[in-house]
Each structure stands twice: as structure tokens, then as C-alpha cells.
Specification:
It is built from 15 helices and 16 strands. The protein is of the alpha/beta class and about 450 residues long. The protein has 2 domains: about 260 residues, NAD(P)-binding Rossmann-like Domain (Rossmann fold, 3-Layer(aba) Sandwich); about 150 residues, Porin (Beta Barrel), CATH 2.40.160. A hairpin with an 8-residue loop joins strand 8 and strand 9. The longest helix has 29 residues. It starts with 7 loop residues before the first strand and ends in a 6-residue tail after the last strand.
Length: about 450
């Protein structure tokens, strides 16, 4: 594995999402970080995030589709640093639509960002790498290059193109001691898909449940960083990409897969029909809710939970060092029918009350708030409750994060929290608490179904 200590790393589209998370990994090696993005506000925020970790960060507002801007960037950076060690072509733009409805203007935009953008940067920085006798180019393609899903045709085609060019470039540049890594991310839960709209049922459901099957940008950032250290020629990122890649070697399976995808992802299911089906689903949930309320009479539930750990005061808010931290709360709902209806605003939102103990600040002080089981939109469980100490109002916000089926034992038992002084908004404490597995029998036994009356 090569050393990345002090290397200059240029990341396009680096102000947020995967780009920013990749940058955060290189910070660990004291690399000089250069971020480019089309948004000056996002660049400013990204720079602040990295600088809090002690990084040397330089930012440039650059439109990757403008060759003159890219050439000027290269000229300025080479004059300033003499040489760029690692170029990461990360900036990307997605599009979800049947090919027959994808106009040429959209094709041009996709080509400009996802194909010409990386090539402009490669040709701008390649001469200096050849002169220097080494360098590393990373091109971010997409797993869509393998799956070639109906309704993602234009995007898949172009990502396939840059992936192919990148893999060929790897072997052509070996004689100059220049490494090339081609990255094929699986779906990443970032803002990349925020503007993706679909007229099909399959497309709508794929976006709705994206948080459940996608990867987090911080995890993918680590994978790319390690691929650079290992000088890998190809980084597949997710095992599922191998399924897409090798599925094409089995024509029957590939045909069946594409027919199923075409039936669910393309406009064979127009918006009107999709809306009608979604409305039917909503009406069904509402009828189930009404039936439960009629038969169960507003049944609710509550459970008692104990979280134990420690905290540290921050921003000179208390003594230095770690102190005990725990909260014992009862949470639940007064209306189980509404609680279980995904079309209602209080879906899986629980009332919460109990006591909190914060070493150096509070001893079994009453608290009250909400617990949100946000499995589907953010893979989190969020605790938000208020309490008061000596006339000062505080709020605790805690999160159990990255909740996926494969890591439930950890994600459901570890909570990262902050205590905030409500009037000033100042964070005064940061904590990590744990649910002890030895408490599981008591936690399960505490479950009560009733017209919820929460008492700690």
C-alpha cells in the first residue's frame, strides 16, 4: 500500500456527499485537499467541515462541463503546487427516464458532466503527471454500467462509457508510472437522487426505499480511499455489482431480469395509474386504521428503556473529562392504529418521558419529548426531549444511526447524543450511551398495550 502522506488530492464535485466524505478520509494522511464544485455555498460549508479536522483545504468554483474553466484550474493549481498527486473525477449528474422520452438536450447535459467533465480533467492534468513520472487518476463510474436498467438508459450508457475508457487508460498509462482506478459505486444515499422523479410504480418504490438498500457516503468514501492506497485498478464497491456484471453471461437470466425491470420501471405504468395505485394503498391503510380503532378502542402501547454511557462537556461548559450519562424513559403511543399508518404524520413517532442524569449537571431530572423510529427515510432512531436544571432549559438530541438489517445489534444499542442549551443554541455536552443486552428481558417485559398513560 502506498503512502498518501502530504499528497495533493483534487476532488471534483467535492463539496458534499461522496466527494466530501472521500476528502475526509484523505485528511487522515495530512493530504492537501482541493475541492471543486459548482456551488460556492456548498464549497464554503465543506471547507469548514474539513478544517475543523485540521485539514489544509483549497476550494475552487468550477463548472466541470466548461473546458476553459478546467484548463484555467489546472494552470492555477500547477503554478501553486507544482504537481497534483491524485485526481478524483467524482462530479456526476443522474437522470431517470425512458430512452424514447429522453431528449437530446438531456443527453448532452449527461455527456457534459459524466463523460466530458472527467476527460477535460484527465487531459488537463495528464501532461504534468507524465512529466513528474507518477500520479493517480480516479474515475467514478456507476454500478448502473452493469445493471443497465430500463428507464436509466442514458445515464447507464454514459457511465458505461467513462468506465470503459478509464479501465483502458489504466494499462496505457502504466509506462508512465501513472495509476488509474475505476470506481463503480452501488446506489449511495446522498442528495444525488433527490431530484429523480419517476412515472412508474417500480421507480417510485425504488426511490422510496432507497435508504434501505443503498450505502452511506461515508462508507463508500472509505472504500474509495482504501482502493487508492492499494492502487486497485477496479473498485466494485458493493458485491451486488458483481451480480449485475456477471448476469450478462447468462442470457436467459439477463432477459428475464430485464423484462421484469421493464414492466415495473418504464412508462408502461403511467403516472395516472401509479397515482391511482398509491391512492388505493393509502385508502387500504386508512381502512385498516379505522377498523383497528373500532375494535381496539384506541389501543396504545409503551415500553421502558434504559440507556447508560458517558459524556464530555464541550465549549468550556464544564469540567474536563468523562462523566456518567444515562436516561431512563418510557416511550410509546396512545393510538397504535395511527402510529402504524405510513400515510399519517405521526407514523412511528412516540411520546417519551422519564428522567435523565448527566454527571456534573443533572441528577434524575424529569424529561419529556419524542422518540422517532425513522427506519425508512433516514435509518435512524431519534430521541428529542427537553429538561430543566436550575431554571435553565436544555434539550437532548440523540441518534441511533445507520440502521440496516445486517447491523441491528450495534445500531439499535448505541446512541450518539448532544445536550443543547435552548436559549443560546450552544452545545454543552456530547455523549455516547448504550442499551445493555443484559437489560433485554426487562425491556421486553415492560411492553404494555393499553390506552397509553406514560409514567416513568
Amino acid at each position: 500500500m502506498k503512502s498518501l502522506k502530504g499528497k495533493t488530492v483534487l476532488i471534483t464535485g467535492g463539496a458534499r456527499g461522496l466527494g466530501l466524505n472521500m476528502a475526509g478520509e484523505f485528511v487522515k494522511d495530512n493530504s492537501i485537499i482541493i475541492l471543486t464544485d459548482i456551488s460556492p455555498d456548498a464549497l464554503r460549508e465543506g471547507k469548514e467541515v474539513l478544517e475543523t479536522r485540521g485539514a489544509e483545504v483549497h476550494t475552487y468554483v468550477v463548472d466541470v462541463t466548461n473546458r476553459k474553466e478546467v484548463d484555467k484550474l489546472a494552470k492555477d493549481l500547477l503554478k501553486k503546487f507544482g504537481y497534483i498527486d491524485i485526481l478524483i473525477n467524482n462530479a456526476g449528474y443522474g437522470h431517470h427516464q425512458d430512452l424514447e422520452d429522453t431528449d437530446l438536450g438531456t443527453w448532452e447535459k449527461l455527456m457534459d458532466v459524466n463523460f466530458w467533465g472527467p476527460l477535460y480533467h484527465i487531459y488537463a492534468f495528464l501532461p504534468s503527471m507524465k512529466e513528474h513520472g507518477e500520479g493517480h487518476i480516479v474515475n467514478v463510474s456507476s454500478g448502473q454500467a452493469f445493471f443497465r436498467m430500463p428507464s436509466w438508459g442514458a445515464y447507464s450508457s454514459i457511465k458505461n462509457g467513462i468506465g470503459t475508457a478509464s479501465e483502458i487508460l489504466r494499462y496505457e498509462l502504466e509506462k508512465y508510472n501513472i495509476k488509474v482506478t475505476t470506481v463503480y459505486p452501488y446506489m449511495i444515499n446522498t442528495g444525488f437522487y433527490d431530484d429523480v422523479e419517476s412515472d412508474s410504480i417500480g421507480g417510485k418504490l425504488s426511490m422510496l426505499f432507497l435508504p434501505l438498500y443503498s450505502q452511506t457516503p461515508d462508507k463508500v468514501g472509505k472504500i474509495v480511499y482504501n482502493a487508492v492506497k492499494k492502487e486497485k485498478s477496479v473498485e466494485m464497491v458493493n458485491p451486488l455489482n458483481y451480480v449485475g456484471k456477471y448476469l450478462h453471461f447468462f442470457p436467459v437470466a439477463s432477459t428475464i431480469s430485464n423484462k421484469i425491470l421493464a414492466a415495473t420501471m418504464t412508462k408502461r405504468n403511467p403516472m395516472k395509474k401509479s397515482k391511482g395505485i398509491m391512492k388505493l394503498v393509502e385508502n387500504s391503510f386508512n381502512k385498516i386504521e379505522t377498523a383497528i380503532e373500532k375494535t381496539a378502542g384506541g389501543l396504545g402501547f409503551n415500553m421502558e428503556e434504559l440507556m447508560i454511557g458517558d459524556h464530555e462537556f464541550v465549549n468550556d461548559s464544564g469540567e474536563k473529562g468523562k462523566f456518567p450519562f444515562q436516561f431512563k424513559v418510557v416511550w410509546g403511543t396512545k393510538n397504535l392504529a395511527k402510529w402504524g399508518n405510513p400515510f399519517k404524520s405521526d407514523f412511528m413517532v412516540n411520546d417519551l418521558e422519564g428522567t435523565i442524569t448527566i454527571g456534573g449537571l443533572a441528577e434524575e431530572v424529569p424529561c419529556k419529548g419524542k422518540l422517532e423510529l425513522r427506519y425508512f427515510d433516514a435509518q435512524k432512531i431519534v430521541y428529542t426531549f427537553d429538561f430543566e436544571v436550575d431554571g435553565t432549559a436544555y434539550q437532548y438530541v440523540g441518534e441511533k444511526r445507520n440502521i440496516y438489517p445486517w447491523n441491528l445489534p450495534y445500531s439499535h444499542t448505541t446512541c450518539f447524543g448532544e445536550v443543547i442549551e435552548k436559549d443560546s443554541g450552544k452545545v454543552i455536552s456530547k455523549s455516547i450511551t448504550h442499551f445493555r443486552m443484559s437489560d433485554m428481558p426487562e425491556f421486553v417485559k415492560s411492553l404494555k398495550f393499553e390506552k397509553a398513560k406514560l409514567t416513568a
